[in-house]
Amino acid sequence: MNRRRVAIVGAGPTGLYLAIALARRHHHVMVVDRDGGPARDGSWGRKGVMQFHHPHGFRGQVVDALTAEMPEVLEAMITAGAVPATIPGMPELIVGLRCRRDLFERVLRNAAEHEPGVELRRGHADRPVADRGQASGLIIDGQRVDADMVIDASGRVGRLGQPLRAPALGGDCGLAYVSRQYVLLRGADEGPVNSPMGLIANLAGYQVVVFPHDNRTFSALIARLATDRELARLRDGRAFDAACRAIPALTTWTRPDRSRPITAVLPGGRLTNSYQGQRNTAGTVALPGLIFVGDAVCTTTPTAGRTVATSLMQAQQLLLLLEVEGDDLHACSMALEGWCDANIQPWFDDHVAMDAAQVSRWSGHDIDLTKRLPSDLIVTAAEADPSIIDRAGPYLAMAALPDSLRGLEPRAREIYQTGWRPDVAPGPSRDELASLVMDTVATA
Question: To the nearest whole percent, how much of the chain has pLDDT over 90?
Answer without folding.
Answer: 84
